[in-house]
Amino acid sequence: MKKSLSLGAPLLVLALMGFGCNPFASVQEKINQKIGDAVTDKVLEAATGEKVNLDTADGSVSIKGKDGTSSVIGTNVTIPAGFTDEIPRYKGSSVNLASVDKDGRSVLFVEIKDASIKDLTAWYEEQIIAKGYKKTSTNEVTEYYMAEFAKGDAGIGLLLVSQKDGDKETVTAQITYSPKGN
Prior knowledge:
The protein is of the alpha+beta class. The chain has three helices and nine strands. The chain has two domains: 1-57, no CATH class; 63-182, 3-Layer(aba) Sandwich (Protein Transport Mog1p, Chain A), CATH 3.40.1000. A hairpin with a 2-residue loop joins strand 6 and strand 7. The radius of gyration is 24 Å and the shape is globular.
């Protein structure tokens, strides 16, 4: 009886694994994902000469340049260290790209759902002007708004683009900051 149990248990495990009940499958997937990410990191690093970290689990790519640049690309990514506080961040926006270079120039791409371009134009202008900037140029059409702001040598560029799907509106915002003008 003992012999049949000792043979039966491994056969049962193998049978279950063969029928999609492999308790190690998710672990193996994560290992394969990490290996794939590491290989892709090395390929991108060789191609760009920069430090690259691809994370397919959260869909982000981080790039750290030898010259002090830092960029993160993905969906709802974390803003990198050293990013300016001069760019206002709308609550509830999803960050798709955040980049800062060694000179402090910063770029932020965000997506904002269920907010109108009209309301966001007013909000961003108010926030930027409250930081001491003056609007130096504007270009406005129904689907987009573009403006530049200046404070001393520093500059902020703002681009808002609206996309409508029925009565729902999504706005993509690109905000750039340069400590030495646009």
